[in-house]
Amino acid sequence: MIAVSIVGFKKTGKTTLAVALGEELARRGIRAAAAKFTHHGETDVEGTDSHRLRKVYGKVAFLGSESSSVFWEGPRFLADLLPILDADVLVVEGGKHLRWLPRVLLLRKLADAGELEQGLALASYGEVAGYDMPHVIDVAALADLILERGFALPGLDCGSCGREDCASLAREIVAGKATLADCRAARAEVEVSVAGQSVAMNSFVQQVFSGALRGMLKEFKGYAPGPIEIRIKG
Fold first, then answer.
1. Residues 163-198, buried b or exposed e (16+ Cβ, 10 A)?
2. Quick one: average pLDDT of 38-58?
3. Across-strand partners of 59?
4. End-to-end alpha-carbon separation of the chain, Å?
5. What is the pLDDT of residues 49-70, one digit of tens each?
6. pTM of the entire predicted model
7. For residue 204, what is the enclosing H or E element?
8. Which residues have CB under 8 Å from 133's CB, separation 6+?
9. Beta strand spans in 53-92 (E)
10. Other CB atoms closer than 10 Å to residue 2's CB: what's the count?
């Protein structure tokens, strides 16, 4: 990677130069990302350094003494970001459109459950109870429930499990009629992980990946048919 740092004291125009440099690289058709060391939190608000840099570079990392953050231009699929989140449990705030995850409902009134439940609710939480589902009022109990019954499907909608989409399988898992093992992409014969997080592949991609890899390895001395393990560090 080609890299350079722009250094100087406060109010010397570091961000202005970084923006101008990003614009010049973009004019040349060169893909570039930016990183900024900061002493305060960055938010993607118009007029801030984070916003100026993101609009030019598209991808910006902010590194502070207490926290770090990354901004991308345009939408991203949540599953694609899991490898960099590096966590054992993912707690998502919002995301009514995510139908490959189970959910906990916080209701203003019972009628809200009709829109939010979608067959994916593990429980309701708070003052208003949902219908035909567990109702939890204790955070510790909710954590126990999530650890016991939480899951994440790949969200590929590949149909390898025999269902129409991931939402259909997720509903069956929540209802106790299926398990995560029914997801063929989750129990793939080809396993690839990034930062400890499995990268999902549907059956066709598994076949292509496996076939291409085995085809290359056949040209290596010492190759013999059998399980293959490759580790790339760094």
1. bebbbbbbbbbbeeebeeebbbbbebeeeeeeeebb
2. 76
3. 72
4. 14
5. 778 898 899 888 888 888 888 8
6. 0.70
7. helix 203-217
8. 105, 117, 121, 122, 123, 124
9. 59-63, 68-72
10. 5
